[in-house]
Amino acid sequence: NVFSEVKSDCTYSPISFLSIEKITNGLKPASIGFKIMVGHAASPTANHAELFEQLSRIGINNNIVIPLEYGEAQYRLKIKQIASGLFPNQVEFLENRLSMTEYYQKLSDIGFAVFNFRRQEALGNILFLVWNGAKVFLNDASSVYKQFKIWGLTVFSISSDLNKNQFEELLSPDEASRNKKILENLFSENKVKKYWEVLMRQESACS
Fold first, then answer.
1. 123 pLDDT exceeds 90?
2. Predicted structure pTM score
3. Can you spell out the DSSP letters for 20-84?
């Protein structure tokens, strides 16, 4: 999943490889809890260690879910060692390959998610989590954070909003409902098809 960024005299296009309908197809209803998801893969660009230090410093008591199915083997080992040392008995590592439906079902009870990348990545994860009512924290230097704010989505800044109280209160029903409506409008099946058509025309014009 990507935001399309072309030359400076061209425009942003909101692109998702999958619509909200396809991402959520086949999922069973689940109650959101107080688990915190950190990152989406064993990738150094996710800056896990920096986040672990912040979460440890504020003294969270929540259980933590860390997806590590994809990425670099040595980095995966390093992250597991750091997380296990800082949060004994709180961490669940997702290392087995799952189908898309199984994976999103696994995330369906996540109440909080923190993504510390500075470039665009993990958009499928983030779209699902925001749609599903999770409280999502992003690096405010990332294009994803900036674009989500432009769209009017309720998301949070790691640098400004990350504190213990934030992880003790779920996103309000009104905020969650508003986020869902915005994303269902932006990433419906018909809209996603149109975005691809626009992107193809833009790339042709900017080449």
1. no
2. 0.86
3. HHHHHTTPPP----SEEEE-SSB-GGG-HHHHHHHHHHHT--S-EEEE-SSB-HHHHHHHHHHHH
